[in-house]
């Protein structure tokens, strides 16, 4: 719950006691819980609160008034917290049209780079946490991930690759047990925009195949992305396995890089955020 709406449980309880805002339901054994409609109501309330509305004022509004105000806020594509809310609500409802429209609007107004940095990466991190903790179903995570993946591919196809006299070669893949492609596809978008060459292999690449791929393609760099929370404790073990099968510099991006300490090694460059990725490519 806290991961989805960004408010501590004791704050939600205080709102409930003081203002009777979204009282929880209870199981037969008296355990508190919120259904999907409750989650959406809380998301709307938090969004108004983050945009300057006092809880005491929100508590006096009807559900329709709250909905109408949030709808007005959604017109501001540069309000990243509101757009993350829109994507969250669409995910809970499995509403493909609403999700796609929000994503398209953000990209049209801000471009893919800013949308990934300010909206999609924070949203995907939030959804991943909820999936891991059981707050939402795995199907919700797959729903959102696949729509994001499809949209990034569309944006890659739109890029007219600029001519570069001596482009670098990048091998892009996900190590075993990492299945989330959005970050890796975004790296492909950035590389194509910079005129670099890529071999994109996606997920499920066995470590044993890497040496053969390296020998055939002869990349200047390899590039992986680590985002799955269940990989966190083993992040250095995974990076080590990858590097044992490479003889080229390795770039590592993804949310886990900024959350867990990664051991410094020769030929290893951690890229902790979008700015790091963009700056590295611009310096090539």
From TrEMBL:
One of its GO terms (molecular function) is DNA-binding transcription factor activity. InterPro entries: Cbl-bd_cap, Cobalamin-bd_sf, DNA-bd_dom_put_sf, MerR-type_HTH_dom, MerR_fam, Meth_synthase_dom. Residues 1-64 form the HTH merR-type domain. Keywords: DNA-binding, Repressor, Transcription, Transcription regulation. SMART domains: HTH_MERR. It comes from the Bacteria. PROSITE patterns: HTH_MERR_2 (PS50937). This is MerR family transcriptional regulator.
